[in-house]
């Protein structure tokens, strides 16, 4: 009765599409060093969760076998409940495998694998780009740049650059 729906459920499993990963998870970062960093952190998290899920599957299968071995009717019902949970975990793992595949492909696409020192050295450029881009987005949204963001730009040493860019843009528009 549910075969078609169950196939559809299995087919759509994946927490985030490749588009989401590329554009929103990694694309939020303006520099290749931070995109690389984010990719590696995402892989670390996904691999950890996937390995935990593998252990959970083994534990659940063992619990199901023990419940069934008793021959008790209630234990059989408990085993069936655990099987439903097992199916949910396995469906999540299908999605995780798909996302891991995309993340691995993205990781492999980096021609340079950045070191921690390279990521640290690129931080000033990253924060300049990120803070200025965010400030411009605030201005375009009509709310103006909030004081906390202005303070962050000052702390990062990019406020003068931002002000200069805005003044240049105003001159070009005039």
Distinctive features:
8 helices; mainly alpha; 174 residues; 2 domains; elongated
Task: Describe it.
The chain has 174 residues and is mostly helical. The chain folds into two domains: 3-114; 122-173, no CATH class. The protein has helices spanning 3-12, 18-26, 32-69, 73-109, 116-121, 123-140, 147-156, 159-173. Helix 3 (32-69) packs antiparallel against helix 4 (73-109) and helix 6 packs antiparallel against helix 7 (147-156). The mean pLDDT is 95.
- Count of DSSP H/I helices: 8
Number of domains: 2
Query: Please, what is the oligomeric state?
Result: single chain
Structure class: mainly alpha
Main sheet makeup: none
Helix content: over 70%
Kindly report the average pLDDT value.
95
Uncertain segments are: none
What percent of residues are in strands? under 5%
What distance lies between the first and last C-alpha atoms, to the nearest angstrom?
Answer: 68 Å
User: How many beta-strand segments?
Assistant: 0
Task: Please give the structural blueprint.
Layout: H1 3-12, H2 18-26, H3 32-69, H4 73-109, H5 116-121, H6 123-140, H7 147-156, H8 159-173
Write a brief structural summary.
With 174 residues, this protein is mainly α. It has 2 domains: 3-114; 122-173, no CATH class. It has 8 helices and no strands.
